[in-house]
From TrEMBL:
Protein name (Swiss-Prot/TrEMBL): STAS domain-containing protein
Keyword tags: Phosphoprotein
Entry keyword Iron-sulfur: no
Protein source organism: Rossellomorea vietnamensis
Alphabetical list of PROSITE patterns matching this protein: STAS
Length: 277
């Protein structure tokens, strides 16, 4: 029997024991992440995920010609997208990869102790190299998948935040208010411009009140884009009124040469609404 086949049999008989030993040795003192969970369902899922890794790993020695990453592709994708693992610091996950690698290297030592005389040093060394190479490939691919999925989820969350942070709220059938709060960078200002125009058209708004009282600071580029909103609204037939302009924003606008001559401005949103009535 070839050394890889013998090692496969040797490991496959120990997969569940590997999982149980791994879980028992986990550092559960840190409350952050999946490894410290007290939820029995989460613990069971974690063990099943770990055991599935062992099964795939062992199969690499049963079929030495198969593609390593192809064998682990589905497992890596599932772990990278798993909500419990996404809430776990990445360095904790990588730590467990390396601890599992140490488990396999310990198994290899035991295998060599029991069967080392049946094989050459080169054959035994090839087993060690395959273990280390496989873990290197899997860890690298996991880190890549985890990062990409985290970025996609972050972008989706940011999109939701942007939508919630620049809503056009209808006051009646033809009047709306756009309350802006917090810091506005160039990216958010661009989104506000696009979203505001689209919502005004969709909701048939004829008069939009833009309240800036919650905006503390903007740079010159953002101030320019905010006043572009007014010009763009005017082009689509929407009258606009600005309220709550802070002195800093007004000063920036003046420095840009923005004229308030044709812009309706009030000190507060309450006053603007009262004047509308």
């Amino acid at each position: 029997m070839q050394v890889s086949e013998k090692f496969y049999t040797f490991m496959s008989e120990r997969t569940w024991q590997l999982t149980e030993n791994w879980y028992e040795s986990l550092d559960k003192s840190d409350p952050t992440g999946v490894y410290a969970s007290q939820d029995l369902k989460v613990i069971q899922t974690l063990k099943e995920q770990n055991h599935a890794f062992h099964e795939r790993f062992c199969n690499l020695f049963k079929d030495v010609d198969q593609d390593t990453l192809c064998n682990f592709e589905q497992w890596i994708e599932e772990i990278a997208k798993d909500e419990e693992h996404l809430q776990t610091p990445t360095h904790f996950i990588l730590r467990e990869f390396f601890r599992t690698q140490d488990q396999y290297l310990d198994i290899l030592k035991e295998f060599i102790r029991l069967h080392g005389n049946d094989y050459s040093l080169d054959e035994l060394e090839s087993l060690r190299n395959n273990i280390i190479k496989t873990f290197s490939l899997v860890i690298s691919k996991f880190a890549e998948e985890n990062y990409e999925y985290s970025q996609r989820r972050l972008n989706a969350q940011q999109e939701i935040i942007r939508e919630l942070s620049s809503p056009v709220i209808l006051l009646n059938k033809k009047t709306g208010v756009l309350p802006l709060i917090g810091d506005i960078d160039t990216g958010r200002a661009r989104y506000i411009l696009e979203n505001t125009l689209a919502e005004c058209v969709e909701k048939n708004v004829e008069h939009l009140f833009i309240d800036l009282s919650g905006v503390i600071m903007v740079d010159t580029m953002v101030a320019h884009q905010l006043f572009q909103i007014i010009e763009s609204l005017n082009l689509i037939g929407v009258k606009s009124t600005i309220s709550g302009i802070r002195p800093e924003i007004a000063q920036t606008a003046i420095q840009l040469g923005i004229s308030f001559e044709n812009i309706s401005v009030t000190s507060t949103l309450e006053r603007a609404l009262n004047e509308q009535v």
